[in-house]
Amino acid sequence: MGQPADNLVKNAVGRYVPEKVNGKTVIPYQGVGRYKPEGQKHAPAIPSYADYPSNGDKRVSSLKEALEKAGISDGMTISTHHHFRNGDVLANQLFDAIYELGVKNLVWFPSASFPCHEHLIRYLEDGTIDHIEGSMNGPLGKYTSEGKMKGTGVLRSHGGRYQAVQDGEVKIDIAVIGAGCADPFGNSSGLYGPSASGLLGFALADSQYADKVIVATDNMVEFPCIPWQIQGNYVDYTVEMDQIGIPEKIVSGTTRITRSPDRLLLAEMTADFCEATGILRDGFSFQSGAGGTSLAAAEFFAGKMREKGIKARFARGGSNKYLVNMLEEGLVEYILDGQTFDLEGIRSMRDNPNHVWTSPFTSYNYHGKGNFAGMVDVVILGATEVDVHFNANVVTHSDGYLLHGIGGWQNCLFSKTVILPVPLFRDRIPVVKDAVTTLCGPGELIDVVVTERGIAINPRRTDLIEKARHSRLPVKNIEELKEEAEKICGKPSAPELEDELVAAIKWVDGTVIDAVRKVKV
Amino acid sequence: MGQPADNLVKNAVGRYVPEKVNGKTVIPYQGVGRYKPEGQKHAPAIPSYADYPSNGDKRVSSLKEALEKAGISDGMTISTHHHFRNGDVLANQLFDAIYELGVKNLVWFPSASFPCHEHLIRYLEDGTIDHIEGSMNGPLGKYTSEGKMKGTGVLRSHGGRYQAVQDGEVKIDIAVIGAGCADPFGNSSGLYGPSASGLLGFALADSQYADKVIVATDNMVEFPCIPWQIQGNYVDYTVEMDQIGIPEKIVSGTTRITRSPDRLLLAEMTADFCEATGILRDGFSFQSGAGGTSLAAAEFFAGKMREKGIKARFARGGSNKYLVNMLEEGLVEYILDGQTFDLEGIRSMRDNPNHVWTSPFTSYNYHGKGNFAGMVDVVILGATEVDVHFNANVVTHSDGYLLHGIGGWQNCLFSKTVILPVPLFRDRIPVVKDAVTTLCGPGELIDVVVTERGIAINPRRTDLIEKARHSRLPVKNIEELKEEAEKICGKPSAPELEDELVAAIKWVDGTVIDAVRKVKV
């Protein structure tokens, strides 16, 4: 259903966005750094020690009991997090319990959703869940894109999610936090246990600002659960469960670098670019995701660093065995980790004090007194589409289907240099286009697009253009890249979309940067 | 000056307390767990990343410049913390700078004050500081007790200070945090550097809730300052200074157990009591302060634990070399540390993951969803006076002088068993009396008073009375103890006090449990 395309306004990047989303007034995107929040952070009710068990034991017998004690009722916003990734059993159990309680019209506010949450489509169908505010990957994205979700989806970056909760834009009634280990008081972490996920940082805002907080674990330990990532002092109820996650789907035992020659080429070109332009210098910092190309780029970095005898001050980002190797080899002094992707990452985070936990608050929150993203020298990100103004899309495919979340992507755009290594086309559909289907990141923040047929540098980055001029890098104009793509694939046709809006895309400051339309089916 | 004793009301422990303190309405103490806060936590203004340097470098050239940028003006509340204890150089420099700026009528809100802050009396005299909200140890206590401070002092426990800031009862305009090390972004810790103090937990509330936060350090390190105890995302300005603390006065190189036979006897009796009543069992937990008797009690615990082959699950509290020895010997599984008293404590906190940082939020905040204090099996505390109803005083001497802060004392009263080992008299003045000069802790929370001439158990603790009955412990009625004291010292005369109020004593929930009167001089 989504919502009709009424009362649209043109925002600062020329996109038509709704004035209201799910009946609530929203602010159209006004440009980078233009919208200044007024007002106060969300102020949770003041609790009293007298209302909690003085021995610190907050255990209740089941998730259902915890939900009832927390006063679950129709229309509430229920939050979960995505640390279990595609091995999340808890969120599905949660909504099974809610369904049994007969509660309706909920807003589900996950930090991300995964294909395993296809199970929840039944609850979108029967009115248990009105809509999802969070990424809609895979089946839920398809469901949403086809206009089947009752309310309108809202997609936020990891930092934007923290911002929305902190600012009271989203008021969480009940947060359910799944933890690899926890104590009866609610101190919890993702470092130990069968459902160990590494970090619990995506649940930080939920713990701090939700009305009621439930911690569920399949590994209850005696107080104190050390080290705690979530503080029990924010927790109302704790629940011991048989299973909350599927270990092999939470973290992969083996992260693999891409073997695709095309993607390896992109990664190598990216590293060459960083070398030629002096970004790769002693004491630099970088962030690269867990995707195949990004992983490969980090490996090329490692090679160059060894060669030059330099090291990085820190690497930000999702950790994995390659990054851990760099830390242990001394190529990187610190990993500032936001999400742990494999078992080696968890081991390192557990044992190495230089493998540091971070959170969306420290790294990404735009409504903080600064954050870490801007301190990173270079970040390597993916995109589904880029346009000739360097605007980029990360949530929809060229056919209009909403199949990815934003993750930390928007937040990382504040890095000193943002590089998108992307293939010039995918399945014979150009990636570099006149206009992106959905605009997630404004071109002024995207510095370099690396394709297998050339590297385009944003004209705003005269410094990089100057440095690249003296290199052998295949620098091209972004229009040239687009034309090359069209020469090979033909002019791409626009996706077939209805007027109806199925989702809004928030910018890091809570404004609406674009809207996603229903796909014609 | 303080304030006239007008409009007093009798509170739930029979003390007459003012309806207003410094012109602001306050709530009289209503009994343990009786006062339930309504309303919301303090909500700071929402900042924007756009207003902070994108490279994360928040350095300004001087403390004065930071204060000016933070908009310091008359009547503001300026907070500091007491991690530097009697080696604090920063707070004195701070008010020197404020004096130079000509700002008046400030409220100084330290987490505690020390004799070194005698320097600030000039600023109390000249109207730079109107009054102090925080402990007034030594010279500042004398100054206050003699009615010389313009406004009325307000004393809070460590947990009460967190509560007051969290609840907006005290709104901090500018917080100044001194850190052993910090990076230009404001991430900071007390673990390294010449002014290393161990922990910075007392500044946590200030960082989270103050309008403007300044971090000062004499040891600026490159980003990231790892591990951070204060998060730079809460910090507005950072300042590099020549010296902020005097190392040998911040932490002692050598903590010493009392050699006084009287105090050793009290410590041994305390440990014997815990053994006889079964408190000292495998997996138990305890907290004992850094005072001589408390340290000695912990040593007697250690001896008994070795003998019995048992260990403690955790020890709470200020850490010192004795506690660190217990941790390293395996007698204690975890130290949950709130304040580090010596160099061995800092070393252990730095290197041993089982030496865990805590804060007034985790351990003491009464307006949290529980806290750690209630989970501690036994706590050993001091007192200046105890009455026959087990009410105790920790802030004034029997002559009425306000010479001590509350520290964590009130918060620790929520432990499962509270023991006060105190001499029956000091300087021929009875410690056990008909009524305490200042009531800081209600008798219902105090379980045992251990004196060299007998142990009194609170009649409410029938379980302990029953257990002690079968022991050789010299259990007596508290009236008997009082009479013995009076037999030796004579009936103590009440301190000579004026009507005028010089300070209010807050309970852990923000209500006023007692008032301190001006001493006749």
Provide an overview of this structure.
The structure is a homodimer of 521-residue chains. The first copy, chain A, is α/β, with parallel strands linked by helices and 521 residues long. Chain A folds into 2 domains: 8-32 and 58-250, Glutaconate Coenzyme A-transferase; 261-495, Glutaconate Coenzyme A-transferase (3-Layer(aba) Sandwich), CATH 3.40.1080.10. Chain A has a 9-stranded mixed sheet. In chain A, strands 5-14-13-10-6-7-8 form a 7-stranded parallel sheet. In chain A, strand 16, helix 10 and strand 17 form a beta-alpha-beta unit. The mean pLDDT of chain A is 96. Chains A and B meet through loops of A and loops of B.
How are the secondary structure elements laid out?
Two copies of one chain form a homodimer.
Chain A: E1 8-10, E2 16-18, E3 20-21, E4 24-25, E5 59-60, H1 63-69, E6 77-80, H2 90-101, E7 106-110, H3 121-125, E8 129-132, H4 139-145, E9 153-155, H5 158-166, E10 174-179, E11 181-182, E12 188-189, H6 204-209, E13 212-217, E14 237-240, H7 247-250, H8 261-276, E15 285-288, H9 292-308, E16 312-319, H10 321-329, E17 332-340, H11 343-351, E18 355-357, H12 360-363, E19 378-380, E20 385-387, E21 392-393, H13 409-412, E22 417-421, E23 425-426, E24 429-430, E25 432-433, E26 448-451, E27 454-457, H14 462-469, E28 475-476, H15 478-489, E29 497-506, E30 512-519
Parallel strand pairs in A: 5-14, 6-7, 6-10, 7-8, 9-29, 10-13, 13-14, 15-16, 15-19, 16-17, 17-18, 19-22, 20-25, 22-26, 27-28
Antiparallel strand pairs in A: 1-2, 3-4, 11-12, 20-21, 23-24, 26-27, 29-30
